[in-house]
Design brief:
The chain has 273 residues and is mainly α. It has helices at 3-22, 27-42, 50-69, 74-98, 103-106, 108-123, 130-158, 178-193, 197-205, 213-225, 237-265.
């Protein structure tokens, strides 16, 4: 793993360890929990879908470290239950993903939240004070949501991938006129942002004059029908970042295939008379 890949993992692991110290966790517990924290942070660099196993293993190690140091409060027991539950959610998500079902990984935050709620209600000392514990959980949940929003922003910046760009695609054509420049910009818009409009217009408007439009339409149909899968509101941030990176890679491969097909047919404006 390159140093540029290790840096975000080290920053995340260090931040998590510092947060645990600030919350009053003892240094010995924090040190014992570091292997789990590092695995949790490192899951972002693991290949898909094994990253789910790595993430789950990290939460299991984290729970084991907390369990080894013991505790008596209901929050400690609820937190421990949530950590084990989260590990189970990620492992089940891996199993389902391996069998072609990604519903759980896309909604992992919701499944984890359910586990946290069940754990809190079960371990709360006064079972009759449901209103009180739910109110407390809503307050805690609001604080966690704010912290999660901030961490999500920081995480996305730390893991922002180097743009894939369009180099080697549009420039592979021998043409050096204004169309080549417009095509390159349109390719970059599609690869980096998923904007199809400019690329489709450039290809369709600059086809050879004697080249049937329906043939070009047939070639670019893959671009028209292409849809990115970027997860949803309940998809963990680290997975959404990976979805975005993989989507850029798929768009780059797609536009390369389409332009190659047009060049083989003599179309797409590459060899317009």
């Amino acid at each position: 793993m390159r140093g540029s890949e290790l840096k975000p993992i080290a920053i995340e692991a260090g931040g998590a360890a510092l947060l645990m110290l600030m919350l009053g966790f003892g240094p010995a517990l924090v040190i014992s929990a570091l292997p789990g924290i590092i695995l949790i942070a490192g899951a972002s660099k693991a290949p898909r879908p094994r990253d789910l196993i790595v993430r789950g293993a990290g939460f299991l190690l984290l729970a084991a470290a907390v369990l080894a140091f013991g505790g008596t409060s209901w929050l400690w027991r609820a937190g421990l239950f949530t950590a084990f539950w989260t590990a189970g959610v990620y492992w089940l998500a891996w199993y389902l993903k391996s069998h072609g079902n990604d519903a759980l990984e896309k909604n992992a935050l919701g499944a984890i939240a359910i586990g946290a709620l069940v754990g809190a209600l079960y371990f709360y000392p006064d079972r009759g004070a449901t209103f009180t514990v739910v109110t407390e959980l809503l307050v805690v949940g609001a604080l966690i949501s704010i912290a999660y929003a901030i961490s999500s922003y920081v995480y996305s910046k730390l893991h922002d991938e180097i743009p894939l760009g369009s180099e080697g695609i549009a420039k592979s054509t021998p043409r050096k006129d204004s169309y080549a420049g417009e095509l390159e910009r349109a390719i970059k818009d599609f690869v980096e942002r998923g904007d199809k409009a400019a690329l489709l217009v450039e290809i369709l408007e600059n086809r050879p004059l004697n080249y049937p439009k329906w043939v070009v339409v047939d070639v670019v149909r893959k671009i028209v029908e292409h849809e990115d899968d970027l997860g949803g509101a309940l998809t963990p941030t680290w997975l959404r970042v990976k979805y975005a990176r993989l989507a850029r890679e798929r768009r780059k491969r797609l536009v390369s295939e389409v332009l190659h097909s047009l060049r083989m047919k003599g179309g797409g404006g590459v060899e317009r008379p």
